[in-house]
User: Which sequence fits this backbone?
């Protein structure tokens, strides 16, 4: 709409058969003679009422016709009589198009291009073409024509012929002087130096418009003697003369004068003849003058047309300018070109005054401080801004008179004329523009109109750019804020994820680009050295470039100059808002290094320490490059916030990893590396630690040779499964105690209940009973006989053993007994199992039976059902079946440790 | 799945601490605090009502055993109501129903 408002062509949009105004741009209002005050009130009114100028000139008829027929129409030379007082008709090239609604033509839109100026010029051209045949013999070079006329005259009408022409100031100049006597011609020519004085008969003829016959004997009507030319007067020896006015189209152009040495030489017929010649000369003069003025008019018209086209070009270019700098570029370059100015400058009003944002000749050496002009009165530019009125300075002299303090600068620029215009939108001054010219120049109405139009469009473009920038800024700020919150939220998730430290940090860097920066790197202190652990770049292509770069120029690890090392050393964040070339040069090892650094396009950087419990363990580096972002203190605060979270998460993760490492090591120590190979017996053990825990669990199982396998052959193997109350170091200590006590006691080949009794004593000895850290256990002695396996077990408060018969039947032991470690005399239940080939003994901990899931409590019934499904499968498969079922029941994450021990009698082996 | 709720009731020189929900490793401190407070009030009988527990693990059993030990030292009676659900199953599996003072319900003490 701005473009429409500023367009130099008239645009109108109307609705309905009454042509109710919907839109009328200022150019259209001006064309229709609607005043600026009336303009806002025309909307919705019939065009006929708001623009009386249209009545009777045919425009309304054109509009009616287009509305009725729906056919577009162009009236190339539509006349509109706007200013009745001046009787001037505007001529426009009018184009009218129908607008279509749901029910056919709903209105019109029309455009008018003002052709008046061009048309006037072309009318003169037409006149010249028409007059051509009449003036065929007249040369267009009027001096030649006058000369020939004068020669013609002296041949027929006397001795001397002088043609005087009126100069613009009203004086007469001798345009042709011809004497019949060639010897006197040179002397007569001197008359050119002495044009007629205001009291001469020539002036009287001009005033009266009538011929005049002169008696010249003894007279000096041209005051030659008084001007020292008595000799000339004597030599010419004139006796009579005739002066006739040269008139063309009612205008006195000069006088045609013939003189003779004969007294009373001129008769009435001579007068008529001279008048005829004067008429011809007049026509020739007029033609020549017309030709000249036509040429000037054509130039003017061309210039006007050129300006209109130029203005359109500038308008179009301005509509695409999204920043003050690009507005300035358009105005300074195209505006100056349009006006023929040698320099155009655009200033924007800022806090400190007027800031130069663009100029035709932007000197690179223009220092930044020189680009700001303080807003105080006394210079043409600031006056234009402060008063809101353009300042027109026609020449250097004008500048010297009105702005003496600006004259020196003006002169130094080589300027003569200058125009300074304020740029304002709805009364708010946004800036100013100036155009300077190398020649003096009177700013004509046309010039001023053009410049004011340009200023108006420029102001609107600036306003648009300002609003656009403000909107962009607000949007960018909102997006940045949103991104940051998202980054923080995601960072917490990423950092807490169950992954290695490197993986988590890599994901953190990927999270940071491009939302926070173009580059992100994390350094950690490892074994006293600062190592880059992870980094990411918003442009993946850059990564390989950087890798090569780092190989060639490895960063100085322990050098205090290295940003990350420095920040880690001091524990203080570092913000470099603007990375200067000087910084790069200082950092660069050599010229190639410098070139590579420059190629990275680094703009801004910040490095924040990763600090936990006052100890700096690493740093995060964020670098802006391609995005052009400049980090400020707000960015640094955010980065520190991110680093604090990252550091805490890292520390937790480190502790967690350490603990888990210890737990895993301990757990491994408390479980058999591998189960022994027993002829005729298949064994399988499984252990799954509770999820989300980093503590040692309390379950154990073990199978071992009770004594030397080559000994008596009786009770050679022991098996144990146990479950210690609680977790962690204390539980692990008890688990270890159980494991080694059982192994020690088993070697004495005591009955199983004796082994557990001794274990109970050992626990009570070791731990105070009041501590009540108890355990449940089954200890058994396993004897393969060759055909079958006999297992004698003692149970202390543990889940009863199960036997899966080869045919699929499950037999549940009686279990029973009392927990160990609490009571001095625990009840211990004896349990015997007899496994035939293919039979399976199953021992589990309560992590199986007490498991809970969405379906509730796992329970012994389910265990038995799953075990039954294992019939016919080897020991390992049965163990896996149970583990899978228990884990599946708990949705994959056991809340308690789960241990399973399977003993299967081999099929058919010796 | 509910967390552990602990309620305390005093009936003369009997303090009843009733548990509801799940009593596991994570709830030991919560339960212990209530039991400690009850013991500090010096009741003749401390009754732990486990009837409404949906689950108890070995850590919970340990809390009970410790309370039992302290009661023996302090000359106080520690009684349990187990109901017939999970607490009964767990305690009997561990062989503790014969060792601890398990009563049928709270009214036994009146």
Assistant:
């Amino acid at each position: 709409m701005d473009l429409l408002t500023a367009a130099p062509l008239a645009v109108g949009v109307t609705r309905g058969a009454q042509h109710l105004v919907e839109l009328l741009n200022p150019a259209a209002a001006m064309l229709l003679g609607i005043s600026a005050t009336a303009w806002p009130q025309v909307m919705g009114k019939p065009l006929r009422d708001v623009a009386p100028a249209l009545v009777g000139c045919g425009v309304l008829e054109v509009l009616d016709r287009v509305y009725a027929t729906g056919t577009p129409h162009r009236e190339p030379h539509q006349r509109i009589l706007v200013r009745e007082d001046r009787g001037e008709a505007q001529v426009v090239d009018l184009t009218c198009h129908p607008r279509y609604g749901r029910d056919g033509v709903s209105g019109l839109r029309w455009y008018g291009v003002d052709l008046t100026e061009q048309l006037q010029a072309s009318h003169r051209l037409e006149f010249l073409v028409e007059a051509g045949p009449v003036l065929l013999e007249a040369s267009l070079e009027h001096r030649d024509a006058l000369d020939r006329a004068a020669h013609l005259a002296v041949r027929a009408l006397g001795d001397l012929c002088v043609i005087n022409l009126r100069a613009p100031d009203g004086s007469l100049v001798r345009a042709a002087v011809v004497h019949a006597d060639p010897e006197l011609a040179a002397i007569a020519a001197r008359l050119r130096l002495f044009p007629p004085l205001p009291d001469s008969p020539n002036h009287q003829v001009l005033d009266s418009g009538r011929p005049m016959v002169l008696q010249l004997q003894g007279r000096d009507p041209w005051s030659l003697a008084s001007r020292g030319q008595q000799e000339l007067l004597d030599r010419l020896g004139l006796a009579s003369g005739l002066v006739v006015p040269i008139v063309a189209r009612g205008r006195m152009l000069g006088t045609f004068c013939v003189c003779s040495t004969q007294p009373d030489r001129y008769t009435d017929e001579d007068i008529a003849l001279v008048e005829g010649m004067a008429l011809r000369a007049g026509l020739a003069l007029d033609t020549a003058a017309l030709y000249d003025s036509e040429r000037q008019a054509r130039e003017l018209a061309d210039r006007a047309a050129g300006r209109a086209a130029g203005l359109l070009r500038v308008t179009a270019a301005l509509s695409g300018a999204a920043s003050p700098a690009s507005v300035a570029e358009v105005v300074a370059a195209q505006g100056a070109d349009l006006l023929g100015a040698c320099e155009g400058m655009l200033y924007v009003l800022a806090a400190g005054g007027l800031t130069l944002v663009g100029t035709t000749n932007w000197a690179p050496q223009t220092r930044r401080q020189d680009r700001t002009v303080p807003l105080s009165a006394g210079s043409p530019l600031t006056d234009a801004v402060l008063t809101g009125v353009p300042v027109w300075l026609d020449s250097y002299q004008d500048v010297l008179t009105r702005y003496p303090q600006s004259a020196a600068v003006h002169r130094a620029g080589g300027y003569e004329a200058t125009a300074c215009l304020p740029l304002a939108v709805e009364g708010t001054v946004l800036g100013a523009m100036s155009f300077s010219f190398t020649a003096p120049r009177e700013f004509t109405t046309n010039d001023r109109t053009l410049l004011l139009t340009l200023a108006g469009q420029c102001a609107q473009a600036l306003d648009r750019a300002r609003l656009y920038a403000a909107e962009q800024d607000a949007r960018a700020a909102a997006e940045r804020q949103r991104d940051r919150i998202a980054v923080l939220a995601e960072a917490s998730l990423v950092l807490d994820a169950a992954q290695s430290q490197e993986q988590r940090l890599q994901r953190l860097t990927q999270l940071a680009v491009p939302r926070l920066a173009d580059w992100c790197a994390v350094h950690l202190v490892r074994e006293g050295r600062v190592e880059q652990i992870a980094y990411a770049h918003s442009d993946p292509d850059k990564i390989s470039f950087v890798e090569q770069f780092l190989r060639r120029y490895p960063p100085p690890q322990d050098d205090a100059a290295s940003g990350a090392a420095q920040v880690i050393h001091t524990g203080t964040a570092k913000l470099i808002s603007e990375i200067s070339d000087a910084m790069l040069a200082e950092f660069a090892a050599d010229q190639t290094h410098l070139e590579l650094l420059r190629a990275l396009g680094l703009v801004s950087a910040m490095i924040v320490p990763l600090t936990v419990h006052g100890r700096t363990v690493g740093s995060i580096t964020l670098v802006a490059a391609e995005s052009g972002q400049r980090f400020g203190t707000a960015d640094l605060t955010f980065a520190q916030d991110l680093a604090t979270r990252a550091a805490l998460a890292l520390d937790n993760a480190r502790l967690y990893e350490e603990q888990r490492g210890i737990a895993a090591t301990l757990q491994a120590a408390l479980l058999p590396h591998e189960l022994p190979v027993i002829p005729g017996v298949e064994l399988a053990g499984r252990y799954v630690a509770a999820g989300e825990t980093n503590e040692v669990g309390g379950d154990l199982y073990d199978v071992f040779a009770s004594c030397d396998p080559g000994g008596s052959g009786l009770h050679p193997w022991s098996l144990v499964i146990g479950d210690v109350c609680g977790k962690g170091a204390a539980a692990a200590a008890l688990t270890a105690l159980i494991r080694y006590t059982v192994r020690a006691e088993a070697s004495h080949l005591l009955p199983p209940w004796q082994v557990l009794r001794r274990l109970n004593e050992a626990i009570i000895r070791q731990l105070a009973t009041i501590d009540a850290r108890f355990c449940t256990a089954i200890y058994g002695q396993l004897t393969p006989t060759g055909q079958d396996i006999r297992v004698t077990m003692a149970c202390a408060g543990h889940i009863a053993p199960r036997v899966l018969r080869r045919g699929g039947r499950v037999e549940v032991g009686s279990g029973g007994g009392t927990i160990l470690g609490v009571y001095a005399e625990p009840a211990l239940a004896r349990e015997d199992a007899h496994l035939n080939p293919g039979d399976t003994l199953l021992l589990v901990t309560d992590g199986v039976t007490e498991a809970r899931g969405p379906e509730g409590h796992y329970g012994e019934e389910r265990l038995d059902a799953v075990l039954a499904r294992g019939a016919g499968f080897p020991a390992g498969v049965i163990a896996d079946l149970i583990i899978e079922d228990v884990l599946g029941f708990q949705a994959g994450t056991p809340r308690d440790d789960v241990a399973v021990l399977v003993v299967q009698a081999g099929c058919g082996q010796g | 799945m509910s967390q552990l709720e602990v309620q305390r009731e005093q009936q003369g020189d009997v303090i009843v601490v009733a548990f509801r929900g799940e009593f596991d490793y994570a709830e030991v401190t919560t339960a212990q605090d209530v039991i400690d407070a009850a013991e500090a009030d010096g009741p003749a009988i401390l009754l732990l009502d486990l009837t409404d527990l949906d689950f108890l693990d070995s850590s919970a059993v340990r809390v009970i055993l410790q309370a039992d030990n302290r009661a023996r030292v302090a000359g106080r009676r520690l009684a349990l109501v187990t109901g017939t659900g999970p607490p009964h199953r767990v305690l009997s599996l561990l062989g503790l129903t014969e060792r601890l003072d398990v009563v049928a319900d709270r009214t036994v003490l009146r």
Notes: The longest strand of chain A covers residues 88-101.
